[in-house]
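Sharing a chain and its predicted structure for anyone who wants a worked example. Both blocks are below, sequence first, tokens second.
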Amino acid sequence: MARHKEDLTVLTKYFKLLKETKTCVRLECREDNGSFTTMYLKKDELKAAGIDPAKGVTIHIEQTKEDSTHA
């Protein structure tokens, strides 16, 4: 799902918990057309943020601004 926010295109993906390891969680987003995206996140980072991966995770993706120091 794409939406526009202040002239920026934002892609939103909804991930479900697929598998857990000792230190990571594996989340997957399946599309209606059969394609899927897999994401691995560290359990300790999710816990520190107060996010329960069993409830699902929503990711908002947008283009990095040219003046960003994170690029």
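Comments welcome. The mean pLDDT is 88.
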